[in-house]
Amino acid sequence: MYIALMHTKQRRHSSAFLATAVIVVILPFFAYLQYTWLGQLSEQEYQHMQNNLRAAAFHCSVEFSQQINHMMRSIGGMVEGTDDVALNEVRTRILRWKASASYSQIISGNVSFCPLPSPETSDELREGDDVSFFLLKNFSGILIPIKGNTKRAILIPFNTAYITSSLLPELIHTYFLTTDASEYEFIITDNTETPYFQSTTRNPRSIMATADIVVPFIMVPPFRPFLSRVMQQDRRQHLHRALEDVHIFDQQPHEQQQGDPGFAPHSNNNPRPRESQSNGRNEHSQMYIKHTQGSLETVVANNRMRNLGISFGILLLLGASVIFLVSSASRAAQLAQQQMEFVAGVSHELRTPLAVLKSAGENLADGVISEKDRTQKYGELIKSEVIRLSDMVEKALTYANIQSGKQQYEFHSVDIAAVLQKTIDEINRRIPKDSVTILPCIEQALPPVHGNEIALQSAFENILGNAMKYSDAAKWIKITTRLLPPAGQQTFIEIAVQDHGIGISPESLHKIFTPFYRGKNAIERQEQGSGLGLSITKHIVEAHGGTISVTSTLNVGSVFTILLPIRMKKKETT
Which run of H or E residues covers position 27? Predict the structure, then answer.
């Protein structure tokens, strides 16, 4: 029977080990796949975010540039005549433009004369040989030249407060609606690289140096430096190419987005777009966009790490769950096996005393035994077998109460020396004194413990009973007690039970307090028992706030040591 049980346990352990090994191998593989896939998804997410951001910036730039270009084409052009005539002509152009403009507050109505700007502060747009207008590089306004006047021009200032506080925030909110505009910082510069608009109070230079996206923002037909000398044919070809490019810019923004290298994203390793990259357009302004968390790469990396953490957490939880299920199934199978062994052992032990009781009862009833001495022996035999049955039933009931949590102990002051002496007397009453030697070394002045006398006596009887059961013909037991020095705020009484029995094998030493467990030596010797005694003893000792331990040497003997505190708060239920 023992060999069959061992084979069953080995098969169960092999299955559990195999399942655990499969999980250990599969989970790292899944983790690697998850890491690789999330890396690819992160790269795609970065490209998607970058494209969306570039597209939003492009359309915002298109809208603003179209408004500026429409304004300059409507108002620009050299004027002639007296000062009043020239001013009236410019004002008429402004009124005509405002009648059809979507954002008529781009320019203010304060038109005035001012000196002609220098090439360092303005760009000029020519139509043929004549200058159409001057665009100030700081984007503060445009100047309309006066025919025949080389010293003065008419200044049309831009409404900077309106552009920076209303128009640009409105356009940003409109074209960055698909993303959360608050997640980004925006800087728009003029042609001198001076910040013209910014959505943040941070240092604009640091944002410009590490921007995620840099796109041209105000694009107008190409300008020629003031008073530069260029051949007439070259100027005409240049203007024709510029006008054609503006037409493409106004009518085909999606193609521009797809093919214009001037809209490539800015990075720390690549130079930002230059004028020569813009198909002949003059980029009078730049828009710098940077994520508030540092950069798009940082955002994607943080998202990836968060997703990896969640994914790995799920994988670990899955693995732990599988291992827990395998372990629980293994423990359940082991418990079921132990219960089967318990049922088999109890059945066997019940069969033996019942058979003895039946045989003795039949002999007495049939008058086979008539002698007084033999009748007395039969009576003692029946008594001992009934005691065995009672102990067996009591242990089974106690274990059932422990498992259901219904085992209760009433605690009071207990004299350990008296309980031990009572246990020895009970054993001597059951067993002839000449069959076992019990050597008590019990201190009589031990302080009382707070516990249950009946439960403690049951625990001591289990240990002494095992000491006699697993000893050879010479049964020798020594019981010693002593008061240990205080350990912190607690003081313990030590009870040691030593025997010269068969001992416990090292592989069984840590299992003997497990319910239904019986060591190899006990099974081979065919000793009667249910495997519950030491489990119940351990529960009783721990219910009293104590500990139990064992040391053993094969064929030499064992020593069971119990420590009980002399001060213990009352425990009603354990």
Answer: helix 2-75
Q: What does the pLDDT look like over 106-163, one tens digit per residue?
A: 998 789 999 999 888 888 877 666 668 888 988 899 999 998 888 999 999 999 999 9
Whether 288 and 418 share a structural domain: no
- Rounded to an integer, the average pLDDT of 275-296 is 69
Rounded mean pLDDT, 183-190: 89
Q: Which residue has the tokens 């939003």?
A: 56
Q: What tokens were used for 330?
A: 């293994």
**Whole-prediction pTM value?**
0.48
CA distance 296 to 273: 19
Residues 6 or more apart from 444 whose CB is under 8 A from it?
417
pLDDT at 219 over 80: no
- Distance from chain centroid for Cα 149: 75
Q: What pLDDT score does 19 carry?
A: 65
Mean pLDDT over all residues of the chain?
77
Q: Classify residue 338: in a domain, yes or no.
A: no
Residue written as tokens 């009833």? Answer: 365
367 has a pLDDT exceeding 50: yes
pLDDT band at 245 (very low <50, low <70, confident <90, very high): very low
In the block, tokens 């959505």 appear at: 199
Among the listed residues 391, 379, 378, the one whose alpha carbon sits nearest the alpha carbon of residue 350: 391
Note down the domain range covering 484.
408-574
DSSP line for 172-194: HHHHTTTS-GGGEEEEEE-TTS-
Encoding tokens for residue 464?
């002494």
Residue found by looking up tokens 């390793």 in the block: 269
pLDDT digits (tens, 9 = 90+) for 350-359: 777 777 777 8
Taking the mean position of all CA atoms in its chain, how far away is CA 65?
49
256: helix, coil or strand? helix
Residues 261, 526: Cα–Cα separation, whole Å: 91
Q: Are 106 and 67 in contact (CB under 8 A)?
A: yes
Long-range contacts of 277-280 (CB under 8 A, 24+ apart): 278/216, 278/219, 279/245, 279/248, 280/222, 280/238, 280/241, 280/242, 280/245
CA distances from 472 to 322, 408, 467, 512 (A): 47, 37, 10, 20
What DSSP assignment string belongs to 349-402? HHHHHHHHHHHHHHHHHTT----HHHHHHHHHHHHHHHHHHHHHHHHHHHHHHH
Q: How far is CA 216 from CA 305, 391, 552, in A?
A: 34, 95, 87
Last residue of a domain, one of 265, 292, 319: 292
pLDDT of res. 496: 95
Listed residues 238, 271, 292: the one ending a domain: 292
Sign of CA dihedral 33, 36, 42, 47: negative
Our count of domains for the chain comes to 2
- Long-range CB pairs of 24-28 (<8 Å, 24+ gap) are 27/315, 27/316, 27/318, 27/319
For residue 322, is it within any domain?
A: no
